[in-house]
Amino acid sequence: MNCTICEKRKAVRYCPAKGEKICAVCCGTEREVTIACLPACSYLLAAHRYEDEHRRQIPADTPLLDVGVPQDIVYTHQKLIAALAFSIAKFCASQPTATDPDVISSLQALAETHKTMISGIFYEKPPDGPLARELYAAIMAMLAEIKRQQAEQSGFAALKDSEVFHVLVFLQRMGLMRTNGRPKSRRFIEFLRAQFPQSQDVKREESRIIVP
Fold first, then answer.
1. 21 pairs with which residues across the strands?
2. Backbone dihedral region of 181: left (phi > 0), alpha (psi from -120 to 50 degrees) or beta?
3. Phi and psi for 22 in degrees, rounded to 5?
4. What span, in angstroms and rounded, lies between the C-alpha atoms of 58 and 106?
């Protein structure tokens, strides 16, 4: 039986996502590109192990790459990082079609919005994709609620836009380093979800974010 994708080569690998066998070449080239691979696929796991041994470099033209992020940010803003990571993981758990590019583009747009807030000239440009835009709106609402609650607590240091900006850039870079660059990749998403297994309350979950 020939591969149902190329219709030329022999089908030798069972693809859980398609529910049928495909050829080895299409498995390698279409994995996380046109095929929304399932996390438990043995071929996907093997590919990810290889990728872990050969980490991709962040492209030099990546937006916000010139921003200096404080080295101790994971400690000074642990709770905020954990809250954002949890919210992203929870959102993606309810949206199975969400991909790493959706999350990373949302984080980039959020960071760029907060960059304008630092300058005092508020301007936002949400990401284009519907899921990315929905995540962007959810995170913006969460950050606004955090600031509102802090404003109501006397003697509590208010969260600065510059601090939020650096946290968002930190998470964006983490995403770029955790993903593999494929359009349907969920490597970063699965990493974040692994930090909060079965958690429904971020306050009860210790942050296990690892500095990339």
1. 14
2. left
3. -135, 170
4. 17
Q: Quick one: three-class SS letters along 144-173?
A: HHHHHHHHHCCCCCCCCHHHHHHHHHHHHH
* Low-confidence residues in the chain, pLDDT < 50: 198-212
pLDDT for the residue numbered 56: 78
pTM: 0.86
Look at residue 154 in the predicted model and tell me its pLDDT: 65
State whether the Cα torsion 142-147-153-155 is positive or negative: positive
Extract the tokens encoding 131.
């899921």
A 10 A CB-CB count for 172 gives 27
Q: φ and ψ at 14, to 5 degrees?
A: -80, 125
CB 88 within 8 A of CB 192: yes
Extract the tokens encoding 91: 């959102």
pLDDT in tens, 140-193: 999 999 888 887 776 666 788 999 999 999 999 999 999 999 999 999 999 998
